[in-house]
Write a structure and sequence with these properties.
Rieske Iron-sulfur Protein; 500 residues; binds FE2/S2 (inorganic) cluster; alpha+beta; binds flavin-adenine dinucleotide; 8-stranded mixed β-sheet; 26 strands; 11 helices
């Protein structure tokens, strides 16, 4: 199955060169999602020499596989931040996020970025009785956080009548995230930042302040890991839950769906929006989140399709995709320098188009020595034993369980002869467990199932044809190459003649 998102399919690449040779600069940014590219333009506008290295192309990560919604609240509910912190912190969150959305709008206008930016309302409603309490709680939480929310009795067509009232937050926004980052990358390059695509960083030397790719290296005063999850070993990874979530886009009639961000909670938790691009109109539905490497991706995608069909008139599905999010135990992201002295920006949950923009401002301010009032709240070294403790313990127990389940019970594995073309599974070859994928032409790729980050065992993702690690979310291609997550080393390749 092709898992290219509607965003990636409708906004071609920025087509920037790859790194060849060695460069010394002030700041090296690893990662060309919204965080890295926004930071690149911030620094370029300030005249600070910087280099950005992107493993594939700008927007390749979660940015180009998101829903393209921008909002001052947070999707899991601002009331959770009040529960874990207090009203003042929740208010500070909304202020920082509102400023980030405004900054995106200013940039779109200043640089004439064609990314369909538009202001619109955000609607929260219950898809079943189970969701009503959550919407009501979020209404009160929003008021406590200083947000101007209001009730509406119903939703515009084609929505079914909701259960209970609809909470509305006006003046939020939507855009095409892939078109935005691609243009931002071009603007940053035009303003003097050296941006390289197809330049995967294979080593981050925090002592020498150097990062290396296959064909070159960059030395810099500051290293920024804008890789969504920081590369290598970082304390923050212990407390984060890593999830995958699914998206689909179906063609609809022009004006067949209202403008707005629609979040339904209840038995079906679904996010929906309209997108007009290239003379086509799409309905986008996103949902069915689960922990990375811990469920069958096909089942979750089928569930999303069923939920979309139950709520909307879905005819044929033009695009299906998936993306990863990282959730911090205490509901706030980690932005700033960590113990290795590198800047990191992670824990954005599904709100990172705005958090990534906030992160770029915080990191810019720290580099140029400007105060940032919000920075202390999200610094990676914060320790919040009460706020994050439950989530931290739960996540470490989940990691431990995954580790023990795979090592103590040793996943049985199927005989290699039973592996069908197009499938991946753990197989036993000469008594050894290997991760095997057979491509549709019958070619076999064997790799070690041991994740190179911290040695958990990877699981097959049947939708995206990848090996996904349940512990901290590293993902690998069938040949072992790193796709995303904290791992830097590929899975070890094996060849049948060597193991038989
Ligand atoms: C299904 C889904 C829908 C979402 N919808 C929304 C939404 O509507 N609104 C919102 O605010 N947020 C949303 N999010 C969250 C948001 O997409 C992310 O938080 C955000 O895009 C993160 O941006 P980033 O730049 O930090 O990371 P990414 O966009 O993941 O970028 C990281 C980049 O680093 C590169 N990279 C990784 N390793 C290396 C390496 N070794 N060398 C060089 N480069 C490397 C990757 O190729 C990638 O391009 C959604 C998330 C999901 C999962
Ligand atoms: S991602 Fe940490 S062990 Fe695999």
């Amino acid at each position: 199955m092709d898992t290219t998102s509607v965003w990636r399919a409708t906004a071609p690449k920025a087509a920037l060169p790859s790194l060849q040779g060695d460069i010394a600069t002030d700041v090296v940014i690893v990662g060309g999602g919204i965080t890295g590219v926004t930071l690149a333009l911030n620094l370029a506008e300030q005249g600070i020499p910087a280099v950005l290295l992107e493993a594939r192309d700008a927007g390749f990560g979660s940015t180009g596989n998101s829903t393209g919604n921008l909002y001052e609240t947070v999707s899991r509910g601002i009331h959770r931040i009040i529960d874990r912190w207090d009203k003042d912190v929740a208010h500070a969150v909304t202020v920082a996020r509102r400023e980030a959305v405004d900054q995106i709008e200013r940039r779109v206008q200043k640089y004439g970025i064609g990314c369909g930016f538009r202001r619109c309302a955000l609607y929260r409603y219950a898809t079943s009785e189970e969701g009503k309490e959550r919407v009501e709680k979020e209404y009160q939480g929003s008021l406590d956080a200083g947000l101007r929310v209001r009730w509406e009795p119903s939703l515009p067509p084609p929505f079914h009548p909701p259960h209970g009232q609809v909470m509305v937050l006006d003046n939020q926004a939507q855009f095409h995230p892939q078109a935005y980052v691609r243009e931002l990358a071009r603007q940053a390059a035009g303003h003097g930042c050296l941006i390289f695509e197809d330049s995967m960083v294979l080593e981050v030397d925090t002592d020498q302040r150097v990062v290396r790719t296959v064909r070159g290296k960059v030395s810099a005063k500051h290293i920024v890991l804008a890789t969504h999850s920081p590369k290598g070993l970082h304390l923050v990874q212990a407390g984060m839950v890593v999830n995958r979530e699914y998206g689909l886009a179906t063609r609809i009639e022009k004006d067949g769906f209202p403008a707005g961000i629609f979040w339904g909670s209840g038995v079906d938790r679904i996010s929906a929006r309209e997108l007009g691009v290239d003379d086509e109109t799409y309905l986008i539905c996103v949902g069915e989140e689960h922990k990375t490497g811990q469920e069958d991706a096909n089942i979750n995608l089928d569930r999303l399709e069923a939920a979309a069909a139950a709520h909307f008139h879905v005819r044929d599905i033009a695009f299906r995709w998936s993306a990863q999010n990282y959730a911090a135990a205490d509901s706030l992201p980690y932005i700033g320098k960590d113990a290795t002295g590198c800047f990191i920006a992670t824990g954005f949950e599904t709100d990172g188009l705005t958090w990534g923009t906030v992160a770029a401002s915080i990191i810019t301010d720290e580099i140029i020595g400007r105060d940032n009032l919000f920075a202390p709240l999200v610094k990676p070294s914060r320790f919040s034993p009460v706020k994050g403790a439950k989530g931290l313990v739960e996540e470490n127990v989940a990691v431990l369980k995954s580790f023990i389940k795979d090592y103590v019970t040793d996943r049985p594995g199927i005989p290699l002869s039973q592996l069908m073309p197009g499938k991946g599974d753990i197989v036993k070859v000469a008594g050894e467990s290997l991760a095997a994928y057979m491509d549709p032409n019958g070619n076999l790729l064997l790799v070690s199932p041991v994740c190179t980050h911290m040695k958990c065992k990877v699981h097959w993702n049947s939708v995206e044809k990848s090996w996904d690690c349940p512990c901290h979310g590293s993902r690998f291609a069938p040949d072992g190459t790193v796709i995303e997550g904290p791992a830097t080393e590929p899975l070890q390749r094996h060849f049948l003649q060597d193991v038989e």
